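Section 3.1: Structural characterization of target chains.
Under the original work plan, the team committed to producing a structural model for every single-chain target entering the pipeline before any wet-lab resources were allocated. The record below documents one such target. The sequence was received from the expression subgroup and is listed exactly as submitted; it comprises 234 residues.
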Amino acid sequence: MTDAHADPATAGTPAVEMWTMYDADRIPTGATMRRGDDFRPGELHLVVHMCIFDAAGRMLIQRRADDKVGWPGLWDVTVGGSVCAGETSARGAEREVFEELGLRLDLTGRRPNFTFNFRHGFDDFYLLRAGDADGADAGRADEAANEGAPTDESDAVPTDVPTVDLAELAIPNDEVADARWATREEIHALHAAGEFIPYRPTAIDFIFDMLGRADILDLADEGGRPGTEAADFG
């Protein structure tokens, strides 16, 4: 398919960010678009957001560079950005995390936890847990203890990311000015003060609520959705 957005004069230039175009069914149209160009009717692109949590259940948030286009100087979730042409959602997320924080992740075989649709595309969210200094999920263990649940090693929550040391992040850089850990309440306070990107507060709550969840149904965490067991398809 001929791509009206392509410019042979800039082909192969690393500074030009190109996006794959998708239709409403998330099927590639065969066309690409240069970042900053106008969207053509019916075409959408793919964005990813990464939310990394520590053992205490706090989210790693970043403050955008003061000269960055779009919400300069505001706090944001861990990482976000557009997927480039030729990348999958997971590969795009890996690249964005490395470019903005210097962290190398392997999301092979990992699906987004959920996807928000927006006017110009699809926004995939990945929610990951980082281990604490001892490799244990102390925050979750404390939470379980408060609820009267056992806290032995068999109840340990698996982590997705090695320990994240703020001092070792590759910041500041052209995109990120600072980073810190924040609770849900602290993020809401930053939002109320106009210091956080204006996500809907309910979306922030949803992100925290979905950490470690495989489904929006509570029953699904107890063994799967009704009617999805192998015996149901016999």
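Residues 112 and 126 are 5 Å apart (CA to CA).
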